[in-house]
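Fold this sequence, please.
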Amino acid sequence: MNPSQGQGESAPTYAAVLRVPRYLPVFLANALSMWGDYIARVTIAAVVYERTRSPLATATTLAVSLVPTFFGRSLIGPVVDRFPYKWVLIWSHLLRAACVLGLMWLVLQGSSLWLMFLVLFGLELIGGASTASYMVLVTDLFDDRHLYARAVGLGAMSEQFNQAIGLAVGGGLIVLVGPETGLLFDLLTFVVAALVTLFVVELRPVSGERGRGLRGFTRDLTTAAGDLARHPVLARLVTLSAVACLGIVAPEALALPIAGQNGWGGVLMASPIVGAVVGIILIGRRDVHQQNRSIVPLALAMPIPLLLIAVEPPIWLVAALFFVSGMMQAFMVPLQATFALVTEPALRGRIFSLAGSVSIAAAGLSYLAAGWVGQHSSAYLAVTICAGVCLALVSLIAATWPRSRVRSAVDSAYATTSSRAA
């Protein structure tokens, strides 16, 4: 396929994406490592609940798995730019495997829950470097940027499925074979991912200037934060992603209170996820320029169906509104692809990490905000309030959206190939 594929041409297929050399094994290895993350979380959460019978302690376990992801992505980002990402990936997989070994030993010994939390914290912290390295790796694999944009959509769908598979496999393993054997399977996912990376991924040297020592590491991080905040396109993309979180997470955060005891809780939680998958499939059929022109309109449309929740419609209609809102979340696919391609290659590791940490922080704060509003009103009204605030914030961004700069950045990003092809 011509790397300079222009506007109006049909988007490449997922089959074409999977035929790109080395992508399929890397894609599968990443899926395995994601399964490992979720299996570890659900396994330790189950052990905690079995010992304490405390929902609060169990929820604390899941919170422990989220906090280090934020710090891992924000603080470990410069590591990805200092060392070849192949070795960062391999060592992050192996170190997480070592953490799983530690968890297995702690479970067998009946050790303190706080020790388990500490090891789980370390496992998730290391995962921050792995996530950023994988994003840089995938960006380098695709000389054809139109194929890369399609790969981002495939990765977004995969993330939804991998979350469900990891949680389901983890829960099933605990019931069938116990937490120790479940963690052994978790260990194998990281080892296999490390081996695939070792034999499949091409070793590439790092590029650009790097500071020396801890002071240089800190300077690299602060410089990247400044570059991100001052960039006319990247800063707007990150800001839009962050403010949209309130509308994206509110349905999931309040699905169970809305469902009550009627058994629709799982359906309501799944509805926006299924809608997102459908939206990703549909937007992936469009040309990359059309996809990028739809970012702001879809972001504006996303919270609108949720405004109707305040009238407390029938539960099946709530599920349908959640589904439609989920479809509109597909704007995140071209947003993420364009963000990656606009970022200077020498800064991708730390910029990707910082942007990821902003998204995680925004999601966490949005969960808390939705829960707080629901606690002081009703679950139905809270969804509408969150959607209204989200719509107002997105409207402010849309009113000052740098359309010409974004268009120029998109044209430049998709008109060129990666440095390897050049």
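The chain has two domains: 10-204, 221-422. Confidence is low (pLDDT under 50) at residues 1-8, 417-422.
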